[in-house]
Amino acid sequence: MRLYAALIAAREFVVSAESPDVRQVQGYCSLCIARCGTVATVTDGRFARLDPDPTHPTGAAICAKGRAAPELVYHKDRLKRPLRRTRPKRDSDPGWEEISWDAAFDQIASAMRRIAEQHGPEAVAFSQSSPSTTAIADSAAFVVRLMNAFGTPNMVSALELCGWGRGFATRYVFGVGSVATGSGGGAMADIAESGCLILWGYNPSFTRITHATATVAGLKRGMKLIVIDPRNVGLANKADVWLRVRPGTDGALALGLANIMIERGWYDEAFVRTWSNGPLLVRSDTDRLLRADDLLSGGGAGQFVAWDSGSSRVVSYDPAVGRYEEGAVTLALRGEYTVATRDGPTACRPVFDRYAALCRRYSPEIIESTCWITRDQLEEAVRTIWHARPVSYYAWSGHEHHANSTETARAMAMLYALTGSFDVAGGNVLFPAVPAGSITGENLPAASQLAPAVGFAERPLGPARWNHVSPRDFYRAVLESKPYPVRGLIGFGANLLLAHGDPVRGRAALAALDFYAHADLFMTPTAALADIVLPVASCFERESLKIGFEISAEAQSHVQLRQAIVAPPGEARSDTDIVLGLAARLGLGEHFWNGDVDAAYRQQLAPSGVTLDELRAHPAGLRKPLTTQHIKYAASDDKGNPRGFPTPSRKVEFWSETFLDHGYSAMPDFVEPTIGPVARPDLAASFPLILTCAKPSLFCQTQQRSLPSLRKRALDPEIELNPATASARGISNGEWVDVRTPAGGMRARARFSEKLDPRVVVGEHGWWQGCDELGLGDCDPFDPNGTNFNLTIDASVRDPVSGTPSHRSNLCEVRPVRGSRADEL
Q1: For 642, which DSSP code?
Q2: What is the average pLDDT across 444-453?
């Protein structure tokens, strides 16, 4: 027995000695805006797998991109050490040489100071990848702080393409974004309580899996779902109503749906009368709001006027306190009234009457011819919206990537206002947030002296108002010194040449800079034009603090310090560490906690009552209980006045004097896509199809195509088209085709979709990266016969308010590629 026991003990020792060292690390994935809660498995010190964490408020599932995280971390092409260019930018070989971090920081700081001395600090721009599709959100506040400390307003970003429509244009209606943009704030769809959810140009199955899982749960409890999308993908096949809208006509659709709601009386009249500027009178002679001091009897400066049907007289409205004068009984929303003014008797109509008249122009017949949606579908959608309230909606880049995106977003927001669901349970709710300290540095000395951002003079209501610069405006400032010269760029992951239109002009601009430094995980076509390239740690190799996870009240209460799963490769550093190191070299270290990132985190956490030590002791995060107060606009402020909305009128604005003051229409009329079959019938013979684009499910924009587990499922870019469209052109499924627009072209493989309108084709952007394991090489993003979708875009066609190019509504023709060239592709 003793010998047997000894043998067993020896065997157990051997097994134990050979057992791998396995540990699990709770955190969250930062590859996209979903920020899914995760559990990482580390085996013998190596990151082995990533799984969802069901205990996390965003951990119901993770996508294929998250599961491929170990491939990303250990990819052979990761940048590992700082690199310096040794050859001119006109050379095909940059002659990269490895340098130390000290040498890199010294050269970057010296160049920034030199440019600032010659042209001003605004001549140094920063660029940043989208927080929706990269991990830059971990460090974005630090980047902004560096800009404010240095004294430049110019952040070259993707705001005009990602976030503008849903979260910024809608501020001109509600005062806040009616659809949240993550760290940008705004109202989030309360899907858990919604009676009806509208997904407008948004496919969460591909872009935000946390919303997809919440939507499926809602459907199981009986929630209604309306999907507005040219494609029947993702949750569209589960929708109660799918509206297959013509690309670029979402604004007309919003007005057409509102028209039926108003005609049927299916709108929240009490909300419109009480909480919108719908009752305010508009002068028919000047098309401006009637002001109290216009009246013959006079009135208070800054006050407006409405018509009280109960007393058949005008009553004043003071936006400073958000109240009508005493005695107002029933404010009129419809009709025409003659008012005695200093200019004589003047015809006036309520704002809402003007809005209703605008909507009447978009009758079901007009919508059918414009949007390709039948009356029956429209009425079914309206009936569902009204009878399944409360309504929530989420919209994304499907409606934003158009040169009419601002007016579309405003029209959608006004349609939503008719439901009366804003900030009610089950609507789009302004969820509370855990109190947090700001670290973006608006109070730093240089921040008070910032020059206007590039593009502000032309579009003062657009992204430049918030210091976001579109790439096209940036290129002009570099190449033409308009409105002033920009000579330097500090880039944090933005792949401008693949993520935006006009890549050829972009390449010329980047090459013309006096200095360009770029931080990234991989050498991209954009990074290849830099003077210094810095290696960045992935989100799995660094700590990061996140206060609130946006998608629900529960998620908002969650505070987490994400741990590093493994060490970064080589000498790679986090974007935050790069900012702190560069700040020190610039002599700004005192404004950056002298390089102590923990001190920055403590400043952020101070108002919350949660400590950094507590978060380190609880890597899964902590909950800070929050109470959601609904209908906050009806609460009283500290003076006893209704809080209202943060707009100039304190009301939801169907009529915008702000827009009028800047030369735009007070109400959001529909504008046909500039390069479309209606606006350009002269092009329709040569380019009879409408080209739009969509994000593939396996990749975040221009990334991850080098990861074998993902790429083997999508070897080549695809162009989706109806079989009838393909048959008329002799195109076979899977065949390489040539896509041509008036601006340029690209090539992709045909993929058939019977549910796609035969007049529409759908491409994909972001293709350049190869995958050696599968024998696939990189693609030249500037080859007119290559795979870069953005070569098909005329970037000069832009939204007049936001500067958004038309990425998703252009004319094209598609033909098969035959012969040797098809074999090469």
Answers
A1: B
A2: 95
Beta bridge partners of 62: none
Laid out side by side, the sheet with 304-308 consists of 304-308, 313-318, 323-324
**3-state SS, residue 283:** strand
Give alpha helix (H) positions in 170-249: 171-174, 204-207, 209-220
Q: Kindly report the CA angle at 153 between 801 and 587, in degrees rounded to 5?
A: 170
- Residue 119 sits at the vertex; the CA angle it makes with 114 and 122, to the nearest 5 degrees, is 100
Determine the Cα–Cα distance for residues 304 and 301; give it in Å rounded to an integer. Answer: 9
pLDDT of residue 3: 35
> Residues 648, 652, 656, CA angle at the centre, nearest 5°?
55
d(C-alpha 785, C-alpha 618), whole Å:
53
Helix residue ranges per DSSP H, 337-431:
351-360, 364-371, 375-387, 397-400, 405-418
Q: What are phi and psi of 353, to 5 degrees?
A: -65, -40
Judge residue 11's burial from the number of C-beta atoms within 10 Å of its C-beta, 0-12 exposed, 13-18 middle, 19 or more buried: exposed
Q: Report residue 734 as tokens.
A: 């899977």
pLDDT, tens only, 172-189? 999 999 998 876 789 999
CB 378 within 8 A of CB 366: no
List 715's β-bridge partners, or say none. Answer: none
Q: What angle do CA 201, 160, 368 make, to 5 degrees?
A: 35
Contact yes or no for 125/474 (Cβ under 8 A): yes
0.70 exceeded by pTM: yes
Q: On the CB side of 348, how many CA atoms lie within 13 Å of its CA?
A: 32
Backbone φ and ψ for 306, nearest 5 degrees, come out as: -125, 170
Structure tokens at 401: 């990537």
Question: Which residue type is seen at 404?
Answer: N
Residue bearing tokens 């800054």: 302
Cβ atoms of residues 749 and 788 within 8 Å: no
Structure tokens at 575: 């974007």
For residue 242, the surrounding DSSP H or E stretch is: strand 241-243
Instruction: Enter the tokens of residue 170.
Output: 């809608």
Q: Up-side HSE of residue 158: CA atoms within 13 Å toward CB?
A: 28
**CB count in 10 Å sphere of residue 601:** 22
Q: Are 704 and 72 in contact (CB under 8 A)?
A: yes
**Residues linked to residue 746 through DSSP beta bridges, in sequence order:** 739
For 158, the token pair is: 């993707």
Tokens of 109: 């700081």
Q: Among 163, 803, 176, 173, which Cα is nearest to 459's? A: 803
* pLDDT, tens only, 809-820: 999 999 999 864
Q: What's the CA gap between 519 and 575, in Å, rounded?
A: 8
- What is the token pair recorded at 79? 């940048």
CA dist 429 and 416 (Å) reads 13
- Sort strands 313-318 and 83-84 into parallel, antiparallel or unpaired: unpaired
Phi, psi of 315 (to 5 degrees): -130, 145
Helix (H, G, I), strand (E, B), or coil: what is residue 125?
Answer: strand
* Euclidean distance between CA atoms 143 and 492, whole angstroms: 9
Please report, as a single letter, which amino acid is at residue 130: S
